[in-house]
Structure prediction request, 465 residues.
Amino acid sequence: MCLGIPGEIVDVAPGPGDLATVDVAGVRRAVNIGLLADDPVRTGDWVLVHVGFAMSKIDEAEAAATLHLLRGLGQAYTDELSALADSDIS
Amino acid sequence: MRFVDEYRDAEQAQALATQIAALCEPGRQYKFMEVCGGHTHTIYKHGLEDYLPENVTLVHGPGCPVCVIPMGRVDDAIAIASRPEVIMTSFGDMMRVPGGDGSFFDAKAAGADIRMVYSPLDALKVARNNPDRSVVFMAIGFETTAPSTAMTVLRAAAEGLTNFSVFCNHVTIIPAIKAILDSPDLRLDGFLGPGHVSTVIGCRPYEFIARDYGKPLVCAGFEPLDILQSVYMLMRQLAEGRAEVENQYTRVVPWDGNARALRAIGEVMALRPYFEWRGLGFISHSALGVRDAYAAYDAERLFDVPGVRVADPKACQCGEVLKGVLKPWECKVFGTACTPETPIGTCMVSSEGACAAYYNFGRFQRQRLTEASRV
Prediction:
């Protein structure tokens, strides 16, 4: 739950839901980007996702390093990723 | 050396270890608390204690949200979940946390409709899809997850949903750190500040630790080198006679935090006068409840909850572990009666709990060292 998972913004959906599609390790899911509205995200940006909300922008190198670290966590990371895969935010 | 697997990292880790050792005053003991469970995980996973001189020790703090939920709140949540009209939704981490009378998993097996979700927004979707049921989200976590709960309540209000509420158990990190600083049990020399919480609250809220307690704090990232570098930054402050808040994790943590996230929390939630933490007892102004303006989304007001305080099991020493007074393996039931499969205490439940991290990564080696040191 506390793991911030890096994802790449692949599509930003207009509308009141503040949603964007992120690609997280090959899994594409909708997340809320409302907390980053002061510095709006664009396609191609990398973000750290916490429980369905993009919480901070990061650069690609940081995203790669974080993903590497998370993979090393084993079960905790797989659990988080499979929870994300089951997510269906709209 | 075997723990940090990449050669370059290992080289850098060794260089940092040498610099840390060079800053040690002979005969002085250094004790730093890593507040965040994510740090605990990295420390054990990568064997970082092996890189530190013997007189530099890391103790584990209360920053594991699942670990600090008191048993009575689990029982209250199960009482809500057991109502026929309710669908309880929860993060997976929460499912095995024992209350006075079992966990969410036990309640689910007994027939309660409890569903795991990844995000509070998934819980909101369950509410949209089940208009004839009352959907409750078990909200837990520090400032890392509180904005998500707040944003979800705001979304529910904007949509006019009337069958969604949150059972709010959000806690705030600053009062817990203060409680530890005020506790007579432990003398600390500084803190590794929590990375993700600081993304939200920024670095300023920690300034009292330097100003009023004269202890340094460094907001730290989660990679092995981040942690070693943060320890080095703490050691350098001590060597130079400084006590300041520094930010090692500038890649992610802005000094002022995330203003929108803080506004969302402030809009929907207010500090409770006091809240019970498992193992730490009641701490003033340490948790968030739902504001009156959003009472319609507050499960605590919508449902009668027993609200009974349940004492922690006698054998369990999570409180001492959460305060950093005991190392996980010093607990009487660690690895024997209490394991990740059959946890007695919360520190063994979450992968971020100090005991689970230790059990999974460090147990055997540490036991050997302990035995060796007794000889």
In short: The first strand of chain B starts at residue 30 and ends at 36. Chain B touches chain A at residues 36-38, 41-42, 45, 65-66, 91-93, 116-122, 125, 140-142, 144-145, 147-148, 151, 155, 158, 196, 199-200, 222-223, 251-254, 258-261, 264, 351-352 (CB under 8 Å). Chain B is about 40% helix and 15% strand. The CA atoms of residues 106 and 177 of chain B lie 33 Å apart.
